[in-house]
Amino acid sequence: MTVIPRFAASAAAEDIAQALQTVGCVIIENLAPVELVDQILAEMDPYIDATPYGSEDFTGLTTKRTGALLARSRASVDLVAHPLILDITQKILGPYADTFQLHLTQIINIGPGGQAQGLHRDQWCFNMFPFPPEMDVEVSTIWALDDFTEENGATRVIPNSLTDPPTAIKDNHRTVGATMPKGSVVIYTGRTIHGGGANNSDRIRRGLNVDYILGWLRQEENQYLSCPPEIARTLPAHVQKLAGYSLGAYALGYQDDIRDPFAVLNGHEAGSSFGGLDTAIPIVNK
Fold first, then answer.
1. How many CA atoms lie within 13 A of 181 on its CB side?
2. Statement to judge: residues 123 and 194 lie in one domain
3. CA atoms lying within 13 Å on the CB side of residue 69
4. Which of 103, 147, 184, 283 has an alpha carbon within 20 to 30 A of 89's alpha carbon?
5. Contacts of 236 (CB under 8 A, 6+ apart)
6. Is residue 1 part of a domain?
7. 95 and 218 in a common domain
8. 281: three-class secondary structure by DSSP
9. Does residue 257 share a domain with residue 152?
10. Both 90 and 212 in a single domain?
11. 193 & 278 share domain
């Protein structure tokens, strides 16, 4: 059985990205301090308690999915914008866009008795659009907020499934559990077949799901409502841009009179012209 490549927190982004592009999934062990994980959970617990369970099998009848991390947990910024994760993501998505952005943030709590989620590819959220088979449009991460074990529902992935046909979602026998200690993270791409595991333990399994996409695609979680301007202004500049308060490409995402949303958010003057189309960078020539 193919295993998931594992790396130490000190590993180089280039090595991790190469494995991710080859196998479709990697684990970085002990990347986040346990104290930071506990702080995020303490800040999010009231919101998790108020979150309803899923209404159907895919979202999980015993599973809670609590989002809006940037607005609700200041400590989560350290994971959402972790430098190593962003570096790896840039290496994966960089060939297809000048910028990438936050796609979603959510804490996934799988309760005892939770059934295994159906296998899928995350990029199918784009209305099942048939992107070129070798093209990466999304990078997904799940941080272990508890130890991930086979018993409590560790995320399951199919290594080397990047270009498999859609029918491969039936290959449950090929899945491998992303078992890892608390504070570790499993990374996979939008092309990787995966799904949440079954929780056969007597405790909740908690994971922080943060995904990133090309700057010219629509975000799954509406960050402008989840993290509105009055809150976004309090975040570091690079996190504001990551959340989507910036241009996603040439003339993409401007506000009203062709103003740069990042400048508007921060009360700066912004020009009202992008220049000619010759200033745009054609990605196909990269």
1. 10
2. yes
3. 29
4. 147
5. 77, 81
6. no
7. yes
8. coil
9. no
10. yes
11. no
Domains identified in the chain, total number: 2
Q: Strand pairing partners for 191?
A: none
Q: How many angstroms separate the CA atoms of 205 and 114, rounded?
A: 10
| Angle made by CA atoms 118, 190, 164, in degrees to the nearest 5 | 70
pLDDT digits (tens, 9 = 90+) for 224-274: 999 999 999 999 999 999 999 999 988 899 999 999 999 999 998 766 556
Task: Count, in order, helices (H) and strands (E) of the chain.
Answer: 9, 10
255-to-101, 264, 277 alpha-carbon distances in Å: 17, 8, 19
Specify the amino acid at residue 144: A
DSSP notation for 129-183? ----TT---EEEEEEESS-B-TTTT--EE-TT-TT--GGGGG-GGG-EE--B-TT
Instruction: State residue 285's pLDDT score.
Output: 41
Q: CATH number for the domain including 40?
A: 2.60.120.620
pLDDT tens digits, one per residue of 177-204? 999 999 999 999 999 999 999 999 999 9
User: What domain range includes position 267?
Assistant: 252-286
Please answer whether residues 178 and 156 qualify as being in contact, where contact means their C-beta atoms are separated by less than 8 angstroms.
yes
Helices 83-93 and 13-23 cross at an angle (nearest 10°) of 50
Predicted local confidence at residue 278, as pLDDT: 59
Strand order in the sheet with 25-29: 6-8, 25-29, 185-189, 138-144, 205-214, 100-110, 63-67
Kindly state whether residues 194 and 266 are assigned to the same domain: no
Tokens encoding 136: 């990466």
**Residue 164 C-alpha from the chain's centroid:** 21
User: Within 10 Å of residue 117's Cβ, how many Cβ atoms?
Assistant: 22
Burial of 80 (0-12, 13-18, 19+ CB in 10 A): buried
- Write out the H or E segment, with its range, that includes residue 6: strand 6-8
Clarify whether residues 222 and 284 are in a common domain.
Answer: no
